[in-house]
């Protein structure tokens, strides 16, 4: 274990400890220990895994602070892994010298407006554990190529950029679990221009990732934002489960937004979004150009527009979710547009306000869509229509309960058809 104080680091928050830390990395034994104290650095601490060999940085159980007083990431881990997660794809250098770098048990903050937390390039089995990353731009930034990443038990809090940013990245196998990711101005977890497979987002609290706490101009953000519209980008094999994902409303904002151009051959797919608490945004969940997604067992509440908006998508199963609102200032409901092969089963839709939602939206609205099955749902206290169909065909409604329980009912039709609707079948509805 190499204690950076043996290499000249002071830790008084004033002295520039950059060179001492770099010296400890270059001359140490692979485990760099940073004792209690506040260590100011002025440029990126570069960890070249080809030179360091097996490597880890640990602080003193949270009593260690790194202050980045320059531009760029406080730490950058760089390896040479160009293979996959398959053991046979690793070369000898990666297998014996670069595997499983670890950074743990410390706080990283910034005083420079372009300071970042941690950046990783071409690493294998990178582990982030027990970190507080705050008041930088991007918290954790993965670029170019990485494999088998674990981010766990971290607080990624109040940063001006993105909490966990996967950008221009080829990455398979990443687990983001048991973290607090909150108050990051440009989003909680964000994926852009990347090829991602086997992404697990589980057991996190992801909340309030927008402009409000930063007192800046309003801008569209999301707690979880996945964008595959760039050429060559794709995201598949994703689990988003057992998280609390909530916010305060922002224009164009969303709790979960997954977006692809509808004419692309590899849209986002093979997703399970299950068992989450999702609420308080302009849209709670917004799927554009998606396929092969299961949305089940979630409590989805309080939207300015809709709890769920599915557009230009196919093969979507929506099952056993609760759609509601918890304050009169918000609304609720589901919208399908230009989509096909959709199953909505066993859900509860309920507007709990006596006067109905200000938007006037029905609880379920379907437009320009086909091959839609709606079965075994409860739709309670919609406005005007319980289910509104416009220019739809091959819609099967079976065994739904569509009722208005208000003292002064606001719903006038259970299922209403507008425009050109064909092959609409409604059986066993209770109103």
Write structural notes for this entry.
The protein is built from 3 helices and 39 strands. The protein is mainly beta and 431 residues long. An 11-stranded parallel beta barrel has the order 11-12-14-16-19-22-24-21-18-15-13. The protein has one domain (102-427): Pectate Lyase C-like (3 Solenoid).
SSE arrangement:
Blueprint (H helix, E strand, L loop, with lengths): L1 E2 L8 E5 L1 H10 L3 E3 L3 E5 L3 E4 H4 L3 E3 L5 E5 L3 E7 L13 H7 L3 E9 L4 E10 L2 E8 L5 E13 L2 E3 L6 E14 L2 E3 L6 E4 L2 E8 L2 E3 L14 E6 L6 E8 L2 E3 L7 E6 L9 E6 L2 E12 L2 E6 L2 E13 L2 E6 L2 E3 L9 E4 L2 E6 L2 E3 L13 E4 L2 E6 L2 E3 L3 E7 L2 E6 L2 E3 L7 E8 L3 E6 L4
Parallel strand pairs: 1-3, 2-4, 3-6, 4-7, 5-8, 6-9, 7-9, 8-10, 9-11, 10-12, 11-12, 11-13, 12-14, 13-15, 14-16, 14-17, 15-18, 16-19, 17-20, 18-21, 19-22, 20-23, 21-24, 22-24, 23-25, 24-26, 25-27, 26-28, 26-29, 27-30, 28-31, 29-32, 30-33, 31-34, 32-35, 33-36, 34-37, 35-38, 36-39
What is the number of strand segments?
39
Main sheet: strand order = 11-12-14-16-19-22-24-21-18-15-13
Cα end-to-end separation: 71 Å
Give helix % range: under 10%
Instruction: Label the overall shape.
Output: elongated
What is the total number of structural domains?
A: 1
Give a quick summary of the entry.
By secondary structure, the chain is mainly β. It has three helices and 39 strands. Strands 11-12-14-16-19-22-24-21-18-15-13 form an eleven-stranded parallel β-barrel.
């Amino acid at each position: 274990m190499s204690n950076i104080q043996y290499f000249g680091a002071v830790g008084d928050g004033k002295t520039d400890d950059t060179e001492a830390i770099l010296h400890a990395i270059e001359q140490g034994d692979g485990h760099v220990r940073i004792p209690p104290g506040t260590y100011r650095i002025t440029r990126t601490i570069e960890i070249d895994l080809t030179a360091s060999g097996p490597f880890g940085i640990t602080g003193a159980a949270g009593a260690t602070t790194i202050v980045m007083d320059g531009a760029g990431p406080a730490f950058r881990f760089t390896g040479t892994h160009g293979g996959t997660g398959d053991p046979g794809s690793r070369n000898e250098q990666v297998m014996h010298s670069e595997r499983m770098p670890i950074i743990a048990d410390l706080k990283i903050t910034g005083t420079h407006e372009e300071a970042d937390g941690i950046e990783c390039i071409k690493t294998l089995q990178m582990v982030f554990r027990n970190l507080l990353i705050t008041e930088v731009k991007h918290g954790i930034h993965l670029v170019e190529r990485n494999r088998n990443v674990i981010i766990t038990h971290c607080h990624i809090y109040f940063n001006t950029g993105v909490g966990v940013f996967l950008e221009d990245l080829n990455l398979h196998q990443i687990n983001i679990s048991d973290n607090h990711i909150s108050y990051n101005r440009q989003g909680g977890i964000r994926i852009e221009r990347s090829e991602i497979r086997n992404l697990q987002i589980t057991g996190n609290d992801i909340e309030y990732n927008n402009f409000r706490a930063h007192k800046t101009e309003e801008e569209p953000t999301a707690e979880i934002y996945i964008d595959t519209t760039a050429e060559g980008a794709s995201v598949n094999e994703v689990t988003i489960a057992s998280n609390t994902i909530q916010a305060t409303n922002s224009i164009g904002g969303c709790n979960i937004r997954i977006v692809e151009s509808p004419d692309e051959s590899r849209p986002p797919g093979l997703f399970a979004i299950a068992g989450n608490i999702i609420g308080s945004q302009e849209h709670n969940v917004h799927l554009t150009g998606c396929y092969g997604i299961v949305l089940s067992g979630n409590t989805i509440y309080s939207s300015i527009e809709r709890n769920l908006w599915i557009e230009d998508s196919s093969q979507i199963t929506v099952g056993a979710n609760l759609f509601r609102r918890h304050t009169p200032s918000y609304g609720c409901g589901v919208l399908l547009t230009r989509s096909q092969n959709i199953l909505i089963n066993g859900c509860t839709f309920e507007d709990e306000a006596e006067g109905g939602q200000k938007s006037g939206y029905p609880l379920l609205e379907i437009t320009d869509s086909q091959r839609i099955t709606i079965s075994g749902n409860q739709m309670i206290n919609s406005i005007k229509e319980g289910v509104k169909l416009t220019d739809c065909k091959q819609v099967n409604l079976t065994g739904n309960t569509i009722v208005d329980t208000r003292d002064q009912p606001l719903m006038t039709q259970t299922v209403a058809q507008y425009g050109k609707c064909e092959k609409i079948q409604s059986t066993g509805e209770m109103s």
